């Protein structure tokens, strides 16, 4: 059940980050991948700031923040 919930949160986080940053999503697999990597990045950033995300909503918020940061980093590298 944890894997399925992680994929759902990753997909939602990637989709939300895509909407926030460029106005559209990245496709189903792209959204899931973006959200999962964003969750990892968000976890690192939250730990560095001394914050904790608990529950499904906390995980989703952390993943969205991480995914947005990931999009910003990729855009800076590409330009």
TrEMBL record:
Membrane topology label: Multi-pass membrane protein
- Report the main location listed first in the record: membrane
The organism's taxonomy opens as: Bacteria, Pseudomonadati, Pseudomonadota, Gammaproteobacteria, Aeromonadales
Which segments cross the bilayer?
26-46, 52-74
Location within or outside the cell: Cell membrane
Q: Which keywords does the record carry?
A: Cell membrane, Membrane, Transmembrane, Transmembrane helix
Q: Does the keyword Repressor apply?
A: no
The family note in this entry says: Belongs to the UPF0410 family.
State the name under which the record lists this protein: Transglycosylase
Offer one Pfam family short name for this entry.
Transgly_assoc
Q: Signal peptide span per the entry?
A: none
Q: Which InterPro entries match?
A: Transgly_assoc (IPR007341)
């Amino acid at each position: 059940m944890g894997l399925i919930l992680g994929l759902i949160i990753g997909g939602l986080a990637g989709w939300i980050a895509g909407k926030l940053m460029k106005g559209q999503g990245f496709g189903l697999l792209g959204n899931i991948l973006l959200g999962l990597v964003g969750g990892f990045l968000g976890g690192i950033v939250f730990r560095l700031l001394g914050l904790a995300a608990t529950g499904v909503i906390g995980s989703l918020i952390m993943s969205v923040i991480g995914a947005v940061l990931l999009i910003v980093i990729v855009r800076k590298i590409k330009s």
